[in-house]
Amino acid sequence: MPFILPIVILVIWYIITSGLHLVKPYILPSPIDVCHSAIHSLSSGSLIENTINTLIKVFSGLILASVIAIPLGILIGRNQTLEELTSFVISILRPVPPVAWIPFSILWFGIGSVPAVFIIFMGCVSLF
User: Fold this and answer.
1) Is 117 within 8 Å of 60 (Cβ atoms)?
2) Distance (Å) of CA 112 to CA 60, 69, 116, 118
3) Mean pLDDT, all residues of the chain
């Protein structure tokens, strides 16, 4: 029973893209084209390489956030003066979604791994 909806979605996707050609392939490729690309990415090793690079960025941001936010949170929680000094800035920055930091990260760090790690860092730190 739980497989019925995904199968229906795949059939509709196939009909829209390959059967009726209602959508251009560069906008929404057919499921068959997606499968061919997935097989090519797996066989060439690029999928595994990109997965490892992504995991490195995610864990770098998470570790950096943990190293900074946990001690900072303990410090702020134990020191009333420090809490009063930082509560305004934390209250302003906490509701900002991590996606909103993308333009700033590109301006500050350029294109590459550093902006991605920064956005993950900000997403983790905003939880504290």
Assistant:
1) yes
2) 14, 24, 7, 11
3) 92
Cα(65)–Cα(77) distance, rounded to whole angstroms? 17
What are 123's two structure tokens? 């997403």
Residue type, 28: L
Q: If you ran DSSP here, which 8-state letter would residue 98 be given?
A: G
3-class SS string, 46-61? HHHHHHHHHHHHHHHH
Same domain, 70 and 107: yes
Give me the numbers of helices (H) and strands (E) for the chain, helices first please: 6, 0
Residue 22: give the domain boundaries: 4-43
pTM of the predicted model as reported, rounded to 2 decimal places: 0.74
